[in-house]
């Protein structure tokens, strides 16, 4: 590979593998990088990964399927950026994505990554399901097509197609309806938000997805958006404006927090329940929103909120970011980040592990099953707790 192709060549060598990228905020252990926690090999930490990328772009090592797996094992959780003390820390994920850009251009991708991108390109979603089914998530729930309502509810591909995430998508809609929020949905006109496509390094496909959604927003007169997924929230808020979008975007927990403050949302009563909350990376570290979901949970009557030792900026990622909820490059082990995370949650004594992300919901619920904790701890989207009172 020619050096000029990799735009971070002038700074990538500055990483000297100090190891800080693996630590949580309290410096308790070196396993807060999901890929490193899974493999316990320096090559899977971001310090090791950057060294391997540099060696590849300089021609010191050749591409291999194993190298591709290492590069794509980064879930873009941003723990490394939080902990890196060096001046280029805010470019760490960008350096990894730039290497993926090169692998996309050269067609050197892990098979599950190739499948993900192919499905999105052909079908508008990573599941390879028909676009006409995108609006089926609502089931028998009466939701209106977006016309001139105050908000457009954007469910994302997970909420539209994943069986478990569909339940959360319906719960959010139910809660919004119960509070009298004016909203509509795009149905089959919505397409994949492109957050994971962007992080996988497929710039051209991301631009097509963003342009299609933005064109729909403009044609339908959308001004305000509520998202189910923090991934959708992140990309519409931070990347779509570069493609010409002019919309306000909110994660649903931000809306629920405001509704509670206004006295418009009735909170459930869960006497004796102990709830712990898992911070989604794309709500927390990517967008610095830690307060809204906690404000919503604190409104639950009769319940005790127990924080995990690693919460907020130190939360261990479930391992589902950057498409890994689909590619599963970090699964199949007791040391998979999702299984580690549910064990951390159970240590709090919680019987409810609350989440606010459809990717986290499916990843952590599957981990609870594998860990044999189904009788002890339930995984619930925050909206599902409030939907009990909305019925």
From TrEMBL:
Q: Which organism is it from?
A: Desulfosalsimonas propionicica
Starting at the broadest rank, the lineage of the source organism is: Bacteria, Pseudomonadati, Thermodesulfobacteriota, Desulfobacteria, Desulfobacterales
Q: Which InterPro entries match?
A: 4Fe4S_Fe-S-bd, 4Fe4S_Fe_S_CS, Cys_rich_dom, HdrC_iron-sulfur_subunit, Helical_ferredxn
- An MF annotation (GO) of this entry: oxidoreductase activity
Which PANTHER family does its entry note? HETERODISULFIDE REDUCTASE RELATED PROTEIN, IRON-SULFUR-BINDING OXIDOREDUCTASE FADF-RELATED-RELATED
- Top-level taxon of origin: Bacteria
Protein name, UniProt field = Fe-S oxidoreductase
Q: Which UniProt keywords apply?
A: Iron, Iron-sulfur, Metal-binding
Cellular component GO terms held in the UniProt record: plasma membrane
- The record places domain Cysteine-rich at 154-231, 275-364
The 4Fe-4S ferredoxin-type domain extends over 12-86
Q: Sorted alphabetically, which Pfam families does this protein's record hold?
A: CCG (PF02754), Fer4_8 (PF13183)
Kindly give the Gene3D superfamilies that the UniProt entry links to this protein.
Answer: Alpha-helical ferredoxin
Record SUPFAM superfamilies: alpha-helical ferredoxin
